[in-house]
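About this split. The held-out portion is used to measure sequence recovery: a designer receives only the structure tokens and must propose an amino acid at every position. Recovery is the fraction of positions where the proposal matches the reference. Here is one held-out target exactly as it appears in the evaluation file.
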């Protein structure tokens, strides 16, 4: 009899605990940027455009159906802020999707631009980024990044500051998964391999969302091989390798220099090869130093005049 009562008590306690956790979860406030779209898409050079941000705030403890959120954005080129917007208070319907329209001035020159969009409510802040690559022809390509996870910050520290999270941990996760696949792929089932590939892609994308230089390098490798949802694409491989190199990642600089030296996937270019190999060598890359020694007869003591992403590198 006592055992029966004890079992009933344990079952009742478990039900109460489950119900309580469900109630707590359902009352957690959420803030999400659903999408960022462009018009026109692709964005042409020297032409004004709009972007539309769909977001949703779900604040269960709010007494009002209408709540006030704050919207702002930043435009960056090569990780440097070109334009920070002011903060725009927006009244939205609690729990409903809201669309914010933002008019943008023309993009004057080719290059890689990142638009970072932020929405906050009290101490909640979320972010979504898109990267625009304006090509020599004036056409553009875009790449969407996953939302940065919402965070709670105090109002003083979060004012017009982007959400920053530890993107390096996603790089570490991606490298561990890649190593696991490299060693054990033949032993794993097809289903497990697919699951690991998906986790690899997700971690690399999160690293890129944090503007991580090594993250762009890993994304370039994924485009080189094609894995899960990442297509095999030499153009995207080179673009991400270029971003990684410009952000100072030594291995990307070495590989880019080597590619220009041999004309592998790019047009052979001695000056660009020397430029990027020198960048890597300056950071201590032994392979780059060796390549430069082999190319010594071709080097005349001047830094080459080249042009990357619309910005010239002057001669000494």
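Reference sequence for scoring:
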């Amino acid at each position: 009899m006592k055992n029966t009562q004890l079992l009933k008590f344990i079952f009742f306690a478990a039900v109460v605990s489950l119900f309580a956790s469900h109630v707590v979860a359902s009352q957690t406030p959420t803030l999400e940027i659903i999408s960022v779209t462009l018009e026109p898409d692709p964005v042409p050079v020297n032409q004004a455009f709009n972007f539309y941000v769909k977001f949703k705030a779900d604040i269960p403890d709010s007494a009002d159906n209408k709540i006030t959120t704050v919207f702002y954005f930043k435009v960056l080129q090569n990780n440097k802020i070109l334009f920070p917007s002011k903060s725009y208070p927006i009244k939205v319907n609690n729990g409903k999707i809201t669309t914010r329209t933002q008019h943008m001035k023309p993009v004057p020159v080719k290059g890689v631009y990142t638009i970072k969009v932020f929405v906050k409510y009290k101490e909640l802040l979320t972010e979504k980024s898109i990267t625009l690559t304006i090509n020599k022809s004036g056409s553009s390509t875009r790449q969407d990044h996953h939302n940065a996870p919402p965070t709670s910050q105090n109002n003083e520290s979060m004012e017009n500051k982007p959400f920053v999270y530890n993107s390096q941990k996603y790089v570490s996760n991606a490298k561990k998964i890649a190593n696991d696949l490299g060693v054990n792929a033949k032993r794993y089932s097809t289903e497990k391999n697919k699951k690991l590939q998906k986790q690899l892609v997700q971690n690399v994308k999160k690293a890129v969302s944090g503007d991580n230089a090594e993250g762009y390098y890993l994304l370039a490798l994924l485009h080189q091989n094609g894995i899960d949802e990442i297509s095999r694409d030499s153009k995207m491989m080179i673009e991400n390798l270029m971003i990684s190199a410009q952000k100072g990642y030594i291995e990307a600089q070495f590989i880019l220099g080597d590619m220009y030296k041999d004309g592998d996937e790019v047009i052979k270019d001695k000056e660009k090869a020397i430029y990027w190999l020198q960048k890597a060598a300056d950071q201590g890359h032994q392979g780059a130093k060796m390549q430069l020694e082999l190319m010594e007869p071709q080097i005349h003591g001047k830094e080459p005049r080249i042009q990357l992403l619309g910005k010239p590198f002057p001669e000494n």
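Annotator remark: Residues 125 and 150 are 5 Å apart (CA to CA).
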